[in-house]
């Protein structure tokens, strides 16, 4: 599948959108980090190994996702490639990882 090259205006719009979503993803992670530490209180309740994995996923998963996607987005921006999708994933991935962690910690709702 061949991709058509972006015009200068399209590339600028793509870069702006990627940077905005990347910044929103970083801001979301900064806000989420402190409440995610509260899940450690759940770990004091004698939970199973799967639930323990869920606790660590809630705490460290979004951090790893944001760092990996910020690096990926930055590389794509430096290469002047389409980076908007990676920027959007920077905002969406932490939310999905937290959702997966919550499903593991609280399987019955």
Descriptive report:
The chain has 109 residues and is an all-alpha fold. The protein has a domain at 32-105. Helix content is 79%, strand content 0%. The protein has 4 helices and no strands. It has helices at residues 8-37, 40-43, 49-78, 84-105. Helix 3 runs antiparallel to helix 4. The longest helix is centred in the N-terminal third of the chain and has 30 residues, at 8-37. It is elongated and about 55 Å long. The termini are far apart.
Which descriptors apply to this entry?
single chain, 109 residues, mainly alpha, 79% helix, elongated
Quaternary state, please?
Answer: single chain
General form:
elongated
SSE succession:
HHHH
Helix content: over 70%
Residue stretches low in confidence (pLDDT < 50, at least 5 long) are none
A few lines on this structure:
With 109 residues, the protein is an all-alpha fold.
Secondary-structure map with pairings?
Elements lengths: L7 H30 L2 H4 L5 H30 L5 H22 L4
């Amino acid at each position: 599948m061949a991709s058509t090259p972006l015009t200068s205006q399209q590339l600028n719009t793509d870069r702006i959108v990627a940077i905005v979503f990347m910044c929103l993803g970083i801001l979301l992670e900064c806000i989420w980090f402190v409440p995610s530490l509260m899940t450690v209180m759940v770990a004091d309740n004698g939970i199973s190994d799967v639930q323990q994995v869920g606790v660590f996923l809630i705490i460290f998963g979004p951090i790893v996702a944001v760092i990996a996607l910020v690096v990926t987005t930055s590389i794509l921006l430096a290469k002047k490639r389409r980076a908007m999708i990676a920027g959007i994933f920077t905002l969406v991935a932490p939310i999905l990882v937290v959702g997966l962690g919550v499903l593991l910690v609280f399987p019955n709702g």
